[in-house]
């Protein structure tokens, strides 16, 4: 997914071969959080001084955001999981469509570019096909901060109002606690004149991580992690060194995989309170959770069905709904999974049923009757998190499975199959002569059963 389709096409010619009924054992090193690193990269546009980001994961989404920054004139130097970002040579303010079409997080750049330069042009964003994810909250908030915005031919064109070259502080109340909108408006307000108050703000750890880094850069942001965030605008921001928080979604995925396989593993480093909603449900379903410092250990045997409903942080994360659904397919008893955040985030249900699960889907509510066994088969991921869910399904299934859709998986999981292999899972990445569509492994388009496969 680098500046076009080369990487994406290459990944489409790869697949994972998984031998099922595996067990996990060992320690998993958790990578830096993708969703945090992406917005931290965007925030580097706010300064003219060097930023050093540590604990940055190797992911195609990160690479794509890096290419967007390079296109703007930013100089990037990677040393292992460290990125040195030099924004002193930014030369253009418009982002090209071919770079942003597959990465929704690219839209976060609009707040930084607008508040720093007084204008910005950003194409409407792309990303996983999991729902509409409107940008109304971003737009309305920027207008409240003093921007004139028009959308023409898919391009969002923003400019500070009148002859003013700065945005101005204001009171903003979000209709929903959108993470992206909260982050965009925090960045925009950081260089605005005066005080901005954002009510009903997102409380996610990634938002808090952004605020911590901006404050290191000289911003004045108060009460991140609370429903109301206050930002006192400053005249300029400087450089800093910042370490990306651990990826709570990757951590949760491995905990769920361990529960699904009746295994015992330890994950580290993590920030345990970021995962409380997940560990609470895992304990409720029968797993034993032990927390020591920045590590979490799980020991699982029989799993019983429990209900979950996705919600903004500190609720159960939508990004772990699909993996948890896989866990519930083999749980004792019945469970109900309710997706409240994205309308198209049940793409994995059809394939889980094909494997032998018993799931009835009514809009965004899945009613699951646990079965004793599911069977391996050819699997196609349609978005990032459903891909992780289907790989877990392949691990617990009887027989072998071939998973296709690595262009989705590699967007958000660093060395996923290698980490699984180190835990004892029999899994290898294969290179085929043909893509999975040409091989006939693409899901039969009985389209009412599953939404489009196309995604970033």
From TrEMBL:
EC code(s) of this entry: 2.5.1.7
Major subcellular location class: cytoplasm
GO cellular component, as recorded: cytoplasm
Species whose genome carries this gene: Prochlorococcus marinus XMU1424
Family: Belongs to the EPSP synthase family. MurA subfamily.
Compartment annotation: Cytoplasm
Active site per the UniProt annotation: 128 (proton donor)
CDD domains noted in UniProt: UdpNAET
Keywords, in A-Z order: Cell cycle, Cell division, Cell shape, Cell wall biogenesis/degradation, Cytoplasm, Peptidoglycan synthesis, Pyruvate, Transferase
Name this protein carries in UniProt: UDP-N-acetylglucosamine 1-carboxyvinyltransferase
SUPFAM superfamilies in UniProt: EPT/RTPC-like (SSF55205)
